[in-house]
Amino acid sequence: MTNIVFIGAGSMAEAIIKGLLEEEKVSPSSICVMNKSDEKQLHYLNAKYKIEIMCTKKLALQKADLVFLAMKPKDAIQACKEIASFLNKQAIVVSVIAGVSIKTIESYLGDRPIARVMPNTSASVGLSASALCWNEKINNVAKKEIINLLESIGTVKVVQEVDMHVITALSGSGPAYLYYFAEQFEAAAVQHGLSQEDARQLFIQTMKGAAYMLMKGEDEPAELRRKVTSPGGTTEAGIEQLMFHKVDEAIFACISAAQQKSRTLGEQFE
């Protein structure tokens, strides 16, 4: 992938660009970014990453090997209409737009190789959990190249497109849910006399350690919980309150609402 064009210059585009360059997957000269209106952001990206900005749309897209669609969902259709006539037939399109299906993108950009990826904001530190799917026009060589590029921002899981809505709810939006839990645990600890700094550091390390235990995969989450929960102990008292307040139901409702919103966003374009 020698020529990469980003349509959109927001936080996710920057995270991918940062990962590609830090992992030396491509050189700055091979990346071009165009954005509809935010020239300040474009100049920021140019200054920080030494990439090309505000490139001539026609020339850049005709030369592009890979095009990332990284605009907001509300701008997706108009952007596809504007670039359709300039794209060369061999260019691979990778969409990071939530909710917009490959079929919808094909209806505007034609019969070409198209992939969808759902990263999350942890891409900015190289720790994204990214789900990836594609149409039948993506050959095996291209599949490997796309995965290789996306691994610069974290892990990549190839999935069926039908699962992208729930994946959007789980890992796409997931960091926000964990930050919300961090807010509440921190506030509760401060209420009981702990300093905010100590509460934050202890909770961050607790999340890090728990995540590592899950990653080891030696025990199921329920078994890990059981091992921490001594009968009649402090953990049991806390778990009982979580159950009493139906936190499990709240989590199910959270995922259900988020995946339904993803479906609704997609239906607007079909």
Q: Which helices and strands occur, and which strands form pairs?
A:
Blueprint (H helix, E strand, L loop, with lengths): L3 E4 L3 H12 L8 E4 L4 H11 L2 E2 L3 H7 L2 E4 L6 H8 L8 E4 L6 H8 L4 E5 L9 E7 L5 H11 L3 E5 L5 H9 L1 H18 L4 H21 L4 H8 L5 H11 L2 H21 L3
Parallel strand pairs: 1-2, 1-4, 2-3, 4-5, 5-6, 7-8
Antiparallel strand pairs: 6-7
Enzyme class: oxidoreductase
Pathway: Amino-acid biosynthesis; L-proline biosynthesis; L-proline from L-glutamate 5-semialdehyde: step 1/1
Keywords: Amino-acid biosynthesis, Cytoplasm, NADP, Oxidoreductase, Proline biosynthesis
Write a structural description.
The chain is an alpha/beta fold. The chain folds into two domains: 4-162, NAD(P)-binding Rossmann-like Domain (Rossmann fold); 172-266, ProC C-terminal domain-like (ProC C-terminal domain-like fold, Orthogonal Bundle), CATH 1.10.3730. It is 54% helix and 13% strand. The protein has an eight-stranded mixed β-sheet, sandwiched between helices. The longest helix has 21 residues, at 196-216. The protein is elongated. It is an enzyme of class 1 (oxidoreductase).
